[in-house]
Amino acid sequence: MTWPAARALAASAACPSKPSAVPLGEALGCRLAVPLRALVAVPGADVSAMDGYAVAGAGPWRVVGRVLAGGAPYAGELRAGEAVEVATGAPVPAGAEAVMPYEHADLSRSGVIGGPVVPGKHIRRRGEDISEGAVVLAAGTVVTPVTLGLAAALGHDVLEVRPRPGVAVLVTGDEVVDAGLPAPGRVRDAIGPFLPGLVEWAGGRVTGTVRLPDGPAPLRAALAGAPGGWAEPGAGTPGGWAEPGAGTPGGWAEPGAGTPGGGSQGGESPGGPDVVVVCGASSKGPADHLRAVLAELGADVLVDGVAVRPGHPQLLARLADGRLVVGLPGNPFAALGAAMTLLVPILRELTCSPAPAQTSALSGEVRPHPCDTRLVPVRRSGRGAVPVGHDRPGSLWGAALADALAVVPPGWSGEQVELIELP
Ligand SMILES: Nc1nc2c(c(=O)[nH]1)N[C@H]1C(S)=C(S)[C@@H](COP(=O)(O)OP(=O)(O)OC[C@H]3O[C@@H](n4cnc5c(N)ncnc54)[C@H](O)[C@@H]3O)O[C@H]1N2
Ligand code: MOO
Prior knowledge:
Elements: H1 3-13, E1 20-23, E2 31-32, E3 36-37, E4 47-48, E5 52-55, E6 61-67, E7 82-86, E8 98-101, E9 106-109, E10 112-114, E11 123-124, E12 135-137, H2 145-153, E13 158-162, E14 166-172, E15 176-177, E16 187-188, H3 195-201, E17 205-212, H4 216-224, E18 230-231, E19 238-239, E20 275-279, H5 290-296, E21 300-304, E22 308-309, E23 315-318, E24 324-328, H6 332-350, E25 358-361, E26 373-381, E27 384-387, H7 397-401, E28 404-408, E29 416-421
Parallel strand pairs: 6-7, 14-17, 14-20, 15-16, 20-24, 22-26
Antiparallel strand pairs: 1-13, 2-13, 3-12, 4-11, 5-7, 5-8, 6-10, 9-10, 18-19, 21-23, 23-24, 25-29, 26-27, 26-28, 28-29
Helix pairs in contact: 1-6, 4-5
The structure holds ligand LQZAQKY5 and molybdate ion.
């Protein structure tokens, strides 16, 4: 399959998740499913912007009362020549024409003040910042910490959001270790560490990362597991394969220590992961069982290899229960390219947040492939996107230096290329 076709197919394989109402505290990182409206005006009443005196008419003014924020408002209407002491945020009495800050007030004799006032000054009128019913953020906006504050100010207790898709990660390979200096013949897992941030950036959440030994049985068990957790092969004990780090070095831990399916929290898809990412086991070696296991499970294989360098053994399938399986090649840069091709478009589609298309001139040497698309790590600059090098499939060095991947079509010659933004 061509690279553009694979990317488009990945997006079309996902259906946007259903909106759900979640408490504010759980909406962070989700996308708004509907526009955010002001349920109340801000400010909600005519209030003072300063600690001082609300006055009516010309001075001097007789001080006839005091209103603190949160206290009872002044009962009557302020008449010319009267003043009420007000705190910042407290409602000003009806009839007040301005607020004079304490530091401008001249308290000449007991209970009477003088001083300069500018009509309307230091009174925040009801709805002056935001009128009731106003749309302040569009549907699709990412809920940031500031969004939560704004939503609260506007009277919201829950937000209608697209739940963040859950992604379970399975890292395969007997040679892969999670910590320390890899011994000869071992490699540090370089894919598991980048996936949570990448997934988060694309609108999802990694519900668990699990190390699997090579062999069809653990992979089969992990993929066949109930959406909320994985079954131990044979033993039937609920639980799961352990989180990286929980097990014996270089090996895999006993079931029970981890639950990669995770429980769903607010703002996340209920009922377990929507997507399972398998790292490694995608190729044709004796330890590469992904395709055979998917066939045994009756999965519908949607993408079986892509004409792209690096990352050609990547794979996309749908399990019988609807979960999508993304197979990333074991070489880490190939895995990143494949994740940008298949996983990111799926997550963006699930959260209704398509990436804006970008093109750029390419400034520097690239060797287009005769038949395959190339993904080339680049840095943007004033003279176009500059390839940063260090882009062998087994190394993330170039991608770590880059801010985008340039998409170089087969046989390309020209100037402009598409850029895929990296997190
Ligand atoms: N006969 C063929 N052999 C290979 C082909 C092919 O088409 N025909 N494709 C090559 C390409 S390209 C890639 S990429 C790899 C993909 O292999 P797998 O997905 O099966 O992955 P492994 O064989 O397990 O590992 C490949 C390589 O990557 C290292 N690795 C694995 N997992 C990790 C990890 N989490 N972090 C860091 N490095 C990892 C592993 O040690 C191997 O060196 O297949 C080629 N072979
Ligand atoms: O996926 Mo491989 O090069 O394409 O490393």
